[in-house]
Amino acid sequence: MSFANADAATRPRLAGVGGRIPALGLRLSVLVALIVAWQLITTVVDDRVSWPTFTAVAARLWEAWIASPEAWLENLAPSMIRLLAGWGIAIIVGVAIGTLIGLSARARDYVDPIIQFLRAIPPPTLLVLFIVLLGIGDSMKVAMIVFGVVWPILINTADGVASVEPLQRDTGRVFRIGFFDELMRIILPSAGPKIFAGLRVSLSIAVILMVISELYAATDGVGFQLVQAQRNFRTLDVWATVVLLGIIGYTLNTILAIVEGYVLRWHRGATGMRG
User: What whole-number distance in Å separates Cα of residue 205 and Cα of residue 151?
Assistant: First the structure.
């Protein structure tokens, strides 16, 4: 390879790295601007109890949650276990059923009205029903999360599987690969982008339902602490818990984005997308 060709091959990678740095700087600048605006606006507001400053909320967040092992063990850990358990079960159920539905056009015609009816029911309205059927333990909270988040995964999986190019499946049949190999090597990888789109949507819903399931008939969890702070007029604790939920959601979404980038790296290369 000549030096000119080597330089041409290296230039896109350098351009990609150079492009990420300004993008990261822009994101951080927007975040810093929002924090500064929060601090300035709340500084001039007369009602410091209802509208605390960012520094006060950050200090309370550190004291009550981040630097407190008791809060991690007694409230944060149970909430994360429920969230991840419900989301994980929903992934298994949604991908499995969605794949079966996506493989059959006739099945999609039969079950689509049922799916559209069930997904239209707001999960919070079923909280009382879940309490009656499953009690007030962790099973009720996990079941509520599963019911609320399974639909985006199921629908996106079915749509992704149904959208696989027939030529790809025909090529697999020409080489006489088995159904399992076809499923794992052709169908699911091709449906991967839409499946991960469903996972992203469902993850944000899972965080919301985790909190809602802990607002009533609970003895621990982030949602329980949030409602206790509200009932006892601890406004600073309410703000700190809300910020904590934002951090949890952002962290989980970032981890999912990293996993998605690794699993779908072939897709990015094929479509010319930058990571």
Answer: 11
